Structures
1.
Amino acid sequence: MDNPSLFDQLPAYALGALSEEERAEVEAFLASSEEARAELRTYEAMLAGMATLVPARKAPAHLTEDFRKRLAATAFPAAPAIAQPRIQSRRQWNRRTPLLLGLAALVAVAIGVFLIARLVVSDPEAQAIQNILNNPAAIRVTLNAQQGATGNVSFVALPDSKVGVLVAELPQLPDEKQYQLWLLNGKNPDSAGVFSTTQPIRQVLVNLPGPPGDYQAVAITVEPRGGSPGPTSAPIFVGTLTQ
């Protein structure tokens, strides 16, 4: 086999997917070529990095042997004595390429699923928002625009909870301004926090000063960044709380 063919075998060697004869040929080549050893180290580092992205699990005892049998089944029958060895090896490698590519695709999909699952589990705020929005017992209020305000706002909360969700599609404010949410019960409005809009539709988890049943209405004003003790401007959105 010539050097290019042996270089082509390095990924399969790193995966442990070569026959005894092929592995012996590659190892002899590695012993005489620093360039080949460097390339092999690159493949091994890539495989090691991929392994750290998913939880380690012990493979079934039969997995390695079954994999080698499947690889052997894809190889061409032994060539006659007059056949050229290097052509035979290239054909074997070409037959194995789809299998190795399929294995790499399965690994990539598994890594992607794991990363997505880890992201969802590691974001308790997003999970809390979905729990409230999907609860059929939740109170849902659509806020009406005031004084020519533009956007869409709804408020969702559980009757006996002090946590709610504000779903807001509002224009982005200057850096020195923020939106502030208020709950009204006929007395002084109680603040339920400030928020900014950095994306078209924003779902905000808000801590309420009391359960929704203690209030008659919910409103939004535009306040200086950080919020105000009381509203300093007329509300731009108002909604009535109903049980």
Note: Strands lie at 139-145, 152-157, 163-169, 177-184, 190-195, 202-207, 217-224, 237-240.
2.
Amino acid sequence: MSKLADEQKSRFRTFMLGKAAGTKKTDFAIEDLFPDKFYVDCVNATYALAIKMEDLPEDGSDMVTKRVEHVLKTRYGHKELDKRRVMGEMWKHFDTWSSAADLPKDAVIRAEKLFKAINAAFAEAERP
């Protein structure tokens, strides 16, 4: 990538989502902007299950999707976590929110940090 950047006289801006969002998770995906309980609740609604937070494994990845998928496979015999179906459930929640105040508190805090990092990275790139 650095060769491409040199050729195009541009700079790639790369940062880790989790670090930018201010979490201590070592593994992080966009779903992790939301509290784990929110994601588990969406999985439960999607699959008509009753997974509890204490059911999620503590070892291995700390990404909520990986932890939930482990439970789905080992306890419920599912082949995999269908993230698209879960996202459909998340969209149902999103559609009911009219302002940032409606979002789960941790999601607002993490999103603010993430967008500040994105804005800072692009502002820095625009400076001569």
Note: The chain has one domain: 17-126.
